[in-house]
């Protein structure tokens, strides 16, 4: 089969070659209807521009890079999927690289990546989005970047976030309204800003209802299912167990449900469990998991869109969250 060319895309969309080029380059002043026609034609024809030829012809590399370090594969997968889908609309490709923030050679590793691969921008996911070494190296190179869910230096550059504290406040309040008072909380990795914001929302909700915060009910996880299991084993081994456990992400919440099932503790009649993120796995367990829907893929897609259109202005983009109530939470059990 002959290779699909930009001429084929233009013919399918009913526009000029120049218009197709403008859409693929993310240029402004293209009617939305026209942009959608071109993107539909690109998808239907599975058009893949020659990156080498395009980069030689202009100042773009048609590459974006996503840098990550996160123990939750579902979260990382969702980030990648959102960015890749957006890149494909404009004939871009996504480079994905894992970094170890604690590496003694982190600065050399980041600098080597920047020198060896020319990209049109970086998408920095947490905790990389708060890493001073990475940020300084990218800023020194002059390459645009967008941070996802940063915690510090919010005026440093463009970022995309949700109200983590507000979401945790709302979900904790829902548990309190169900009659729960012994609500345990499992924190995420301490290097992630969302960990502190979600814990802050949980604490604020307890204060708002006049419920004392017991540090015995707060455990330190790291966003992995294994840490959820370890924390749940401690919490559910207490003489007086919590009636609800709020884990800072879905994977840790699933670890809690696994331990509860092993111990014969019925969810939600004896123990309510909720998480955060609304990853696909939240609907694959029984009972299905109550959680906060975080638009992870939409966050990375927006980051890609802003970088491709070359409009990553300083300041933040706050996306909406949603409390998703499912079968893993219910009224607090009566205690004799």
Describe the protein's architecture and organization.
The chain has helices spanning 6-13, 17-24, 32-45, 51-57, 73-89, 106-116, 132-141, 164-177, 193-208, 225-235, 250-262, 296-308, and strands at 63-68, 93-98, 122-124, 145-148, 159-161, 183-187, 218-220, 244-247, 272-274, 291-293, 316-318, 322-324. The chain is an alpha/beta fold. The chain has a six-stranded parallel β-sheet, covered by helices on one side. The chain has a four-stranded parallel β-sheet with strand order 7-6-8-9, with helices on both faces. Strands 10-12 form a two-stranded antiparallel ribbon. The chain folds into three domains: 6-48, lambda repressor-like DNA-binding domains (434 Repressor (Amino-terminal Domain)); 60-161 and 297-320, 3-Layer(aba) Sandwich (Rossmann fold); 164-295, Response regulator (Rossmann fold). The chain contains twelve helices and twelve strands.
